[in-house]
Structures are given as C-alpha cells and as structure tokens.
Amino acid sequence: MLFASHSFLIFLLVTAIAFYCFIPAKHRINSLIFASIVFYAWWSVSHLTLLLGSITFNYIVGLIIASKKQKTGWLTFGIIINLLLLAIFKYTDFVISSISKLPTFDLEPIGIILPLAISFFTFQQIAYLVDVARGQVNSHGFRDYVLFVSFFPQLIAGPIVHHREMMPQFSKDHQPSETTLNVTVGLTLFAFGLFKKIVLADQFGVYADQLFEAVSFGYQPSAAEAWSGSLAYGLQIYFDFSGYSDMAIGIARIFGIRLPMNFFSPYKAKSISDFWRRWHITLSRFLKDYLYIPLGGNQRGTPRRYLNLIITMLLGGLWHGAGWTFVIWGGLHGLYLIINHGWIALTARGQVLAPLSIVGRLIGPGLTFLAVLVAWVFFRADSLADAWLVLSAMAGAHEQLLKEHSLSMFKDAEMLIWLAVGLAIVWFMPNSLQIMRRYRPAIGSGTVISAHGSSLGSLWKDGPSITWRPTAGWAVLSGLIAGAAVLGISKVSPFLYFQF
Predict the structure, then answer these.
(1) Are 90 and 118 in contact (CB under 8 A)?
(2) Residue 73 lies in a domain
(3) Is the pLDDT reported for residue 103 higher than 80?
(4) Of 162, 320, 333, 452, which residue is the catalytic one?
(5) Quick one: which of 143, 449, 192, 451 has its CA closest to 309?
(6) Is 333 a catalytic residue?
(7) Structural domain ending residue among the three candidates 173, 195, 218
C-alpha cells in the first residue's frame, strides 16, 4: 500500500479513528500491530509469512543470546541466517546474470520477486541481535518486538530504527493535549511529504525518465539534455526521499510515536562527509556502528581507514540494489570520502597549507553537489553502458554529432522553470523538520550519525527562520498543500526506495 495513494489515505483515516476512538489504551499496541500486518499483506499475503517468520526467528535467537555467557556463536548464526535470507531474495538473480556473461556459461535468471522492505527489516534485526550480544537491550516482550520491526510508517523504506529509540515509546500514555498536538504535527508533516512526492518528485521524474529511457534505447543525448535530465533525477530522488521521510515521521507522530530523522537538506552539504550526515541518516548510522567500526574504523592507521571506508560504501551501494551500477555508485562515494579526508589531513599540516582550507570552504558546497550528481547517474541508469553514455554527453563528447531529433521536453522552457524552482527550494529554504522544530518532530537533532564523528546540532540554523505553530493560518496553508497533493494523485507512483 503506497503512502501516496487514495487507498492508503482511507487506511490511515480508519486506523487513526479506531486507535483513538474505539480501542482501549491497553490494546492500542495490538491495534498498531494489526494495522501493520494489514498494511504489509495488502501487497503480498505470501510474503507476510516471510516477515513474520523473520521476526519470530530473530526474537528467539535474541532470547538465546541474552541467556548465554558465550554469545558469539549464536550471534554469528543469527547474522548468517539473516544475510542468507537477504542474499537469496535480493542477489541470486544478480549473481546468476553476472556469471552468465562469462564464457561457457549460459544461465537464465530465476526471476525471484523481491519482498518489500526485506533490506530494511533485515538490517534492523541484525542491529538488534548485535546490541543484545553487547548487553544493550532491556527486557521486553514479544508484542513490543513485533511492533518494533513491523511498525507500518517505517517498515517499507525506513528509517532504520533502534530498539532503544522505539520500545520505551510503546508503553507511554499520552494526555489529551499531547494527542491533539501529535495528530496536528503528524498531519502537517504528512501533508508536506505528500506534496513533495506528488507535486515535485513525480514532476521531475517525468523529465529524468525521458532522458534515461531514451538512452537505454541507444539515444545519444546532447550536453544540455544530459545535464538537465541528470539534474532532474537529482531533484526527483531528493524530493521523493524527503517526501517519504516527512510522511513516515508524520504518520508515526499521529499515533504518538517519534521516529528518528532520516533526511536533513543534504544538497546544502559543504563536503561529502557532510552529505552523509544528512542523507539517509539512519543508514549512515547503521553502516558506521555495525560495519565501519567493527572493521576497525579509523583506529588502525590511515591506509586501513581508507580501505574500511571503501568496503563500507561498496557494501552500502550493493545494499541499495543488486546491480553493478549500485556498486559503482557506492565505490564513487567511498572514493569521495577518501579524497575528503585526505584534503582535511593535508590542510591541517601547518600554516603553509592551511589557507587551502579556505578555498575548500568556498568551493566545497558546489563541488559536493556536482560529485553527488555525477554519482546519481550510475544510481539511475539501467546499465553501466547507459551511465557512461550520459556522463560522456555531460562532458560534451556528443556535441559534434548533428542531431535530426532531440528530446522534446528538453526544449521546453517549463522544464527550466521547474529545475530553477527545485534548486531554490533545496538550497535556500528550510526543511520540514526545521519549520516544525519547536515541536520536536523527530528524534536525533544532536545524534552523531556518520562514520566521521560529527553531529547535526548546528545544522538546525540553516535557512531562513520559518516556524510552524498550530494556528488557523498554518491550518489553512497545510490544508491547501494537502489538497493540491491529493488532487495530483492520479496514478501508481511508488517511492524510489521501495525497490530496495
């Protein structure tokens, strides 16, 4: 069930009314579990068995780990089973198709259907098992664990939540005044997110799809087409994921639960490290805590630190999708991070090279955005050949060709206006969490969330000061935003992260 659909709007309305008007307080956790099961089963009843089986398996393994003095064996067993499940469903066809390209091999992909959310609930439960082994999990029942994993606002595409963030909230009672505020804040954030998805992301997707679909059929774009289409995709995935993040946080807040923030104006980043403190924040946290640091982090010398960064980002890329384009995307970001850290180390060496840091601060935001945009080409392209065709066009390689035909949308001034508006929003406007900051819309404003040892505390000051309050004026504005978005729902439009 897609957030940006009429069926989900009805589902959310019915669930919220039942939650507050008909369900006794002591049974509200059960009602959220039931709603989450219906939400997931709406897509596939058969894969619901997989989700519930995974939840039961990991809860039992967690109990065993907690009861043992020697925890390593059971922890290893639990992690292997989780990764094996993920590998079978997500990477079997990728491996087969890669092998089939070698000489003497002629294999056909099996065509396995990827269960929704498997990447997210697998990582979330691996983190849980590791924390149990570390002695960081307090006692809790099976019911709370089921909701922790299956809670529908964050089940499909994150954020990847921690048990210590979520479980204490399940037993919290809210006063009527808190309920009113929670519903108001939640609905406002949901409206913001729905608008970003329907009105902005889907519009930019039209332009991006025209470029990349044409390239997949062998079309050689001009530099202007390649840059415009790539920029359109950069804005599409920005507003798509920003919109989803707002909607997830807003839906959870309607029920009195605060999720960790997962998106914080990443195109305002001053460096690639800063970008990863702002983009998919909970994934960065997971990769840092459960991969980068266990590999040794930055504690084993500079060469090992750089190797750890590359490994972390390559696996992060592969997590996003079973394809070589995603591996290259992750590898590029690993290389970007190495260059970033090398530059910091270089400019820290005495007064002679220190002025270079001033140059870095001046060109850092633009260079970071350009690097991210180049990497997005691999993320979006259907193949490495398609990605190279777009990048070579961006470099001007095809300008010598005399074109009899061109992509129609890229001759339209309307597209340039949309691109200008999109860039103005992402670069100069405050984000939703900043606008709602007075009411603490999400967890994590001061959380260290990347492998690079910094926090988001100071970032809350970015952008002009616009503060939401529960007033009639804001209610009217939010209603207009929501109305424009709802009227724009006309076709099935899944979030981009639903495919991961």
Answers:
(1) yes
(2) yes
(3) no
(4) 320
(5) 451
(6) no
(7) 173
pTM value is 0.92
Tell me which of 51 and 138 has the higher pLDDT: 51
Name the nearest CA neighbour of 167 among 190, 187, 184, 142. 142
For the segment 475-484, the average pLDDT, to the nearest whole number, is 93
Q: Which residue has 């997005």 as its token pair?
A: 376
Digit-coded pLDDT (tens) for 59-68:
999 999 999 8
Q: Which domain holds residue 295?
A: 267-425
Do 273 and 414 lie in a common domain? yes
The 3 state secondary structure assigned to the chain is CCCCCHHHHHHHHHHHHHHHHCCCHHHHHHHHHHHHHHHHHCCCHHHHHHHHHHHHHHHHHHHHHHHCCCCHHHHHHHHHHHHHHHHHHHHHHHHHHHHCCCCCCCCCCCCCCCCCCHHHHHHHHHHHHHHHHCCCCCCCCHHHHHHHHHCHHHHCCCCCCCHHHHHHHHCCCCCHHHHHHHHHHHHHHHHHHHHHHHHHHHHHHHHHHHHHHHHHCCCCCCHHHHHHHHHHHHHHHHHHHHHHHHHHHHHHHHCCCCCECCECCHHHCCCHHHHHCCECHHHHHHHHHHHHCCCCCCCCCHHHHHHHHHHHHHHHHHHHCCCHHHHHHHHHHHHHHHHHHHHHHHHCCHHHHCHHHHHHHHHHHHHHHHHHHHHHHHHHCCCHHHHHHHHHHHCCCCCCCCCCCCCHHHHCHHHHHHHHHHHHHHHHCCCHHHHCHHHCCCECCCCECCCCCCECHHHHHCCCCCCCCCCHHHHHHHHHHHHHHHHCCCCCCCCHHHHC
Residue 218 covered by a domain: no
Q: What is the mean pLDDT of the chain?
A: 89
In the structure, what pLDDT confidence band is assigned to residue 455 with cuts at 50, 70 and 90?
Answer: very low
Per the structure, the count of domains in the chain is: 2
Q: Could you tell me if residue 480 is inside a domain?
A: no
Is the pLDDT confidence value at 403 over 90?
no
